[in-house]
Each structure stands twice: as C-alpha cells, then as structure tokens.
Amino acid sequence: MTKIMSPEELEDELRAIGAARYHDKHPFHTLLHGGKLNKGQVQAWALNRYCYQSAVPRKDAALMSRCYDRQLRRDWIHRIHDHDGEGKEEEGGIERWLVLTDGLGLDRDYVMSMKGALPATRFAVEAYVRFVQEKSLVEAVASSLTELFAPKIHKERISGMLENYDFISDDVMQYFRRRLAQAPDDAAFALDYVKRNARTPETQAAVLDALRFKCNVLWAQLDALYHAYYDPGLTPPDAFVPA
User: Fold this and answer.
1) pLDDT digit string (tens) for 50-104?
2) 0.90 exceeded by the pTM?
C-alpha cells in the first residue's frame, strides 16, 4: 500500500475482510447451527471453545500492560470484567460459558483443565495472545475487530441450536445473548480507535493484516474440530473423546 486511505475507506476494507473470512462461513458452523452434529460433537466444540474464552481476558490484560494512555486503559478494562466477572452480581462470560458446558454434561473441572482440548486449538489461541503481546498497539486493537461480525453469528447460534437440539435449553445460551449487547459496543470503540490511529499506508496495511490474522485464528480452531470430530474423525491422543 502506498496511498493513505480515508477512515471510511479503511473501515470498508476491514468490513470486506470479515465478509470474506469470518468463521461464520466455515462448514463446521453450518453443521452446528443446522442441527447436523450429535451431542458429543457439540460437546467437543464447547470444550475446545472454552480455551479461547479463557484466553480473552489474558489477551486484554496483555494489551493493557503495554498501554501508556490511562484513558485507553480505563476504556479497555471493562472487557476483562465482561469475561472474568466482578463478583456474584456479575459472574462474567467465562462463567456463562461454563454454564453451557455444564448443561452439555461435561465435567467442569475437566473443561477448565483444558486437558481434552485439541492441540491445534491450544496453538491457535496462544498465537493470538502472543500476537497482542508482540505487535503494535493499533494492531492489537485491530485484531479484536472480529467483534464487528459477531452479533450475526450469535443470533444464528441461538436460534439454530435451540431449534435443532433437544439437549440445548435457553438457560445455557445466555453467553450468546449477553454478547449481542456487549460485542457491538466493543467493536465500535475498537473501530474508532483504529480509524484514528492508523494514519499511514504502513499502519493501515498492518491493521488489515491483524484482522486477517484473527480471522485465521478462529477459522483454524474450526478446521481442527472438523477434522477431529466430523471428517475424517481422527482424534489426536489425549483429546476429548465423546461417550
């Protein structure tokens, strides 16, 4: 890139990346939302996704540790509270995810240990944490912009899973209902930050690559699930094996 894009042009490019690369287009999600998986396969998805959920506050803490702007830290810290909670009145997204895995019949301690997670899941999640630790602050913020596209997939997940699985109840879907309100606010803040701070061709190219990277992180996790639990169904040693 040699030409500086306007903030509006940069936003258009970011949204185009999501339109092409976001993981709502992965065949595993089509199977999940369409009721084509059995309970064990849904359990495997929820167990592996816990690795990502549990890493989000670590990623956000890593971002804040590199931020000298006090106001940005003030604005960003609510993301950690959203996931880790703030006590009994607000238990947080990780707890709501564990309610989902509880409802699916998984042992909570086993889920939290992550011992049954696929190796590729762990590698992808930790690559995301390292990216935020090592890249520029504007790239780290840009990598969170998959939140721009999250509400659509949450709506599809809520309706599809409730409609198609008799082992899914509304009570265990509260993580996704809560994110319908949280994700748009998070995305709007991050998008504004990126548009204000990516003001050279080099930084604009970097933030576009950061969003591509994050889309790849999410896609790779579904690739691993598809291969291990659907086709060809080759589960690696020590990974979760459905009953």
Assistant:
1) 999 999 999 999 999 999 999 999 999 999 999 999 877 778 999 999 999 999 9
2) yes
Q: What is the 3-state secondary structure (H, E, C) of 24-62?
A: HHCHHHHHHHCCCCCHHHHHHHHHHHHHHHHHHHHHHHH
Task: Identify the structural domains of the chain with CATH numbers, from first to last.
Answer: 7-229 (1.20.910.10)
CA-only gyration radius of the chain, Å: 18
Judging by beta carbons within 10 Å of its beta carbon (0-12, 13-18, 19+), is residue 175 exposed, middle or buried? buried
Nearest to 221, CA basis, from 40, 34, 44, 69: 44
Q: Which residues make Cβ contacts (< 8 Å) with residue 225, sequence separation at least 6?
A: 28, 44, 45, 48, 118, 121
Alpha-carbon gap, residue 235 to 224, rounded angstroms: 9
Categorize the per-residue pLDDT at 122 as very low, low, confident or very high, splitting at 50, 70 and 90: very high
pLDDT of res. 89: 72
Alpha helix ranges (H) inside the chain: 7-21, 27-33, 39-65, 70-84, 93-103, 108-113, 119-134, 137-142, 150-164, 174-197, 201-229
Q: Please enumerate in sequence order all residues whose Cβ is within 8 A of that of 103, keeping only pairs 6 or more positions apart, or say none.
A: 167, 168, 169, 171, 172
CB atoms inside a 10 Å sphere around CB 58 = 18
Mean pLDDT, the chain, rounded, equals: 96
